[in-house]
């Protein structure tokens, strides 16, 4: 009987993509994937280290898996830690969590089957934090993708930016871009399999710089990324999204590409993190508020209506009330369609962790709630502006709240619910919006 493997994924879309890649390799090596930890002989936790809470959750989960095996009077499964926590903590994980047998770094995904075999052959602890090998190419089976309609397509791995608060450059390594020819071929393949949407993903997608321009020669563009957008759009994939963009590398030609190709979706995620130039400098973001607003202006002035979303950290060390008010004013000016707000979380090993002037948790919470209230009022106005308009929706599943409704995402990346009628997941439909809710839209199918 084949050994059963369960992978539990925490964190970002890159982690989801890594899980899909790992599952593909494991199945090819003869392992059977299972959907529950309780049924597995091998449990792999694909981890996130961006925030301290996510890291603590992983170690709690390890204890739960170990204790469940004890209560069920069954042999403890082989437990492996993958991803960013594995890369950062390395062999220290074995001391922190003795139940762990295997530590797998962020670029060891393709070597997991051989690492598991080493554990099963008797090695007490196995660790691999090495880089990818040149012979290892991106390979994901459709059977392992999280959705049969939407596919994550990584185009760049790692980060060179070294923002003072961020652990990603240490956990994911330096930026390394996939070849355009390989990316375009993957999207062609996805389209032939019936996928309706490709999401180009990376820590900083518009930092995309492949070693060769092969595959991009027929396309104009001010940057390699805007040329890649045009090349991917030319595959005929019905919907193409990309995330995440870095402000310093966001060129107005990206907006030009969106205007040229209707299948490039009308959504840009452009994290600003703060509206205060003093805090942005302390964060080492490489841009100030004026730089950022110029890029926002190019998005807002597009011939297409582009949805704009962002990330903001409140309570960064030394953030004053004046700094926070500048963030509030920037949010008023940008009028984001959605905003992801985070309280600053200290990450050991980052420059920000050594900074003085840490804010009390109560101040972080107060600012979080004030910004959330402001964004809610902005968002209500934006969402209500869609009432009476028609949006294109990729149907994803039945609504969790009503068996009579279906749900999906629009091209502008908003959740849209509508009366199901005869629609099925995977269809792209036009929905006339009848009313807006705080974080979603509701409508009826266009007849």
Keywords:
single chain; 447 residues; alpha/beta; Rossmann fold; pyruvate-formate lyase- activating enzyme; OB fold (Dihydrolipoamide Acetyltransferase, E2P); 3 domains; six-stranded parallel beta sheet; five-stranded mixed β-barrel; 21% strand; globular
Structure in words:
It is a single chain. With 447 residues, this protein is an alpha/beta fold. It has three domains: 4-128, Methylthiotransferase, N-terminal domain (Rossmann fold), CATH 3.40.50; 142-384, tm_1862 like domain (pyruvate-formate lyase- activating enzyme); 390-445, Nucleic acid-binding proteins (OB fold (Dihydrolipoamide Acetyltransferase, E2P), Beta Barrel), CATH 2.40.50. Helix content is 34%, strand content 21%. The chain is built from 13 helices and 19 strands. The protein has helices at 13-28, 52-71, 83-89, 92-96, 112-120, 168-172, 180-192, 224-233, 252-260, 277-283, 289-300, 321-334, 361-384, and strands spanning 4-9, 32-33, 42-47, 78-82, 102-104, 126-128, 150-154, 156-157, 176-177, 197-201, 239-243, 267-269, 307-314, 338-343, 390-398, 405-410, 415-419, 428-436, 441-445. Strands 2-1-3-4-5-6 form a six-stranded parallel β-sheet, sandwiched between helices. A five-stranded mixed barrel has the order 15-16-17-19-18. A three-stranded parallel β-sheet has the order 7-10-11, with helices on both faces. The longest helix has 24 residues, at 361-384. It is globular. The model has no long low-confidence stretch (mean pLDDT 94).
């Amino acid at each position: 009987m084949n050994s059963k493997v369960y992978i539990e994924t925490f964190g970002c879309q890159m982690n989801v993509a890594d899980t899909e890649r790992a599952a593909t390799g494991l199945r090819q090596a003869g392992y059977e994937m299972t959907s529950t930890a309780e049924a597995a002989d091998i449990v792999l936790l694909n981890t996130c280290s961006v925030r301290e809470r996510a890291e603590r959750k992983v170690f709690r989960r390890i204890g739960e898996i170990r204790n469940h095996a004890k209560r069920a009077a069954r042999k403890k499964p082989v437990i492996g830690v993958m991803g960013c926590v594995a890369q950062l903590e390395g062999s220290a994980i074995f001391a922190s969590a003795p139940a762990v047998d295997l530590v797998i770094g962020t670029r060891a995904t393709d070597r997991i089957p051989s690492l598991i075999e080493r554990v099963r052959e008797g090695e007490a602890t196995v660790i691999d934090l090495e880089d990818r090998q040149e012979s290892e190419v991106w390979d994901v089976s459709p059977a392992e993708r999280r959705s049969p309609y939407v596919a994550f397509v990584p185009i760049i791995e790692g980060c060179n930016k070294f923002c003072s608060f961020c652990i990603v450059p240490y956990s994911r390594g330096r930026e390394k871009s996939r070849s355009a020819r390989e990316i375009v071929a993957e999207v062609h393949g996805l389209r032939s399999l019936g996928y309706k949407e490709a999401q180009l993903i990376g820590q900083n997608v518009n930092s995309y710089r492949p070693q060769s321009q092969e595959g991009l020669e027929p396309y104009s563009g001010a940057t390699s990324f805007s040329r890649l957008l045009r090349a991917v759009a030319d595959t005929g994939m019905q919907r193409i999204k990309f995330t995440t963009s870095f402000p310093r590398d966001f060129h107005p030609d990206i907006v030009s590409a969106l205007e040229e190709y209707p299948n490039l979706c009308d959504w840009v995620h452009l994290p600003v993190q703060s509206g205060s130039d003093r805090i942005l400098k302390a964060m080492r973001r490489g841009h100030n508020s004026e730089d950022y607003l110029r890029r926002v202006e190019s998005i807002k002035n597009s011939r297409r209506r582009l949805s704009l979303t962002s990330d903001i950290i409140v309570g960064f060390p030394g953030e004053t009330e004046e700094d926070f008010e500048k963030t509030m004013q920037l949010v008023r000016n940008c009028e984001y369609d959605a905003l992801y707000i985070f309280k600053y979380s200290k990450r050991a090993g980052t420059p920000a962790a050594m900074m003085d002037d840490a804010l009390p948790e109560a101040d972080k919470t107060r600012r979080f709630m004030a910004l959330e209230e402001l964004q809610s009022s902005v968002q209500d106005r934006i969402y209500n502006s869609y009432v009476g308009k028609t949006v294109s929706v990729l149907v994803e599943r039945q609504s969790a709240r009503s068996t009579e409704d279906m749900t999906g995402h629009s091209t502008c990346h908003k959740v849209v619910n509508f009366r199901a009628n005869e629609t099925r997941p995977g269809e792209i439909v036009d929905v006339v919006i009848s009313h807006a809710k705080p974080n979603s839209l509701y409508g009826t199918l266009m007849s």
